[in-house]
Design goal:
Order of helices and strands: EEHE
Number of strands: 3
Strand order of the largest sheet: 2-1-3
Number of helices: 1
Structural class: alpha+beta
Distance between the termini: 27 Å
Number of domains: 1
Strand content: 25-35%
Helix content: 25-40%
Largest sheet: 3 strands, antiparallel
Shape: globular
Mean pLDDT: 88
Radius of gyration: 14 Å
Low-confidence stretches: none
Length: 74
């Protein structure tokens, strides 16, 4: 049986995040509307992903380490 092709979603941008402890979180979704058009995408996305991590940590009770680097997924 053929697989369905994934739809391209222009409303979100994917980022790969590497934390200081060496763990990697691939394809983190950031709403494109929330990125600052006057600032570097990576810098804008970092603050949004940090806020997402804080929310996840509150819900799970497992805090995430500091972000080492962030880059756009391909």
């Amino acid at each position: 049986m053929a697989k369905k092709k994934a739809k391209v979603d222009d409303s979100t941008i994917m980022f790969d995040v590497i934390y200081e402890d060496g763990t990697k979180s691939s394809r983190r979704r950031v709403p494109a509307a929330e990125l600052d058009p006057h600032e570097n995408d990576d810098a804008s996305a970092k603050t949004i992903i940090m806020a997402q991590d804080q929310k996840i940590a509150q819900m799970s009770g497992n805090p995430r380490g500091p972000i080492k680097s962030i880059s756009r997924s391909e």
